[in-house]
Amino acid sequence: MKRKALFVFLLLLIIPFASASAHRPMWGESLGPIELESISTSYAFYQTLKADEIDVFYFEGKRGDKLHAGIQIPDISALKDYGVTLALFGPEFPKPEESQLPPEHPEDLGAIIAATEVTEDFFEPFTQANYWGRQNIDTTLPADGTYYIIVWHPEGKAGKYVIDTGFAEVFSILDIFVFPIWWVRVQIFQEYYARVTVFFGVLIFAIGYFIYRKKDSIFHRG
Prior knowledge:
Elements: H1 2-19, E1 24-26, E2 34-35, E3 43-49, E4 54-61, E5 66-74, E6 85-90, E7 110-114, E8 122-124, E9 129-140, E10 145-152, E11 159-165, H2 175-189, H3 193-221
Parallel strand pairs: 1-3, 2-4
Antiparallel strand pairs: 3-11, 4-10, 5-9, 5-11, 6-7, 6-10, 8-9
Helix pairs in contact: 1-2
């Protein structure tokens, strides 16, 4: 019976991996540029942008590599009209106008600039979160070299955003056990505090019930 219950529990955890188009969640710290280890792996970086802050992601690219980078805004009421500018800097890109560039940027590189635009709203079933759709960059890299993805608000306003990169969904069986932590972190980022309260309430109840049944069974064996 215990094995059956464990199997059902693991199956419920696996379902999100099997049924959802999922990005591997990452939480970037604003302590400097963030390296993208792979531009083919599908990542979602949950970022809090401070006032006048610029976020930088970088990677080593090869000519002919495909790159996807997209912006979504969490469906927090205060951020409904929020948007950021997204830029990809790299070799052999055209030089944009100075007015389009962030205050700090690679001086010797051209760029593709994607200003804020409203696109289709997005529901992410992997973590049950809603987003307001924003802009994307989908391109083929023109040369070997170091590339920089830069995100900023043109007026320096603080806010939150999620940037997703890559195409391939890469997970391991061990990630099943990490998924509840990912889920809680995303709910907190999205400010779904009621969900987090219910989650921990059910968890505490389940642990208490397990301890009660364990003590009861030990008492009866005695």
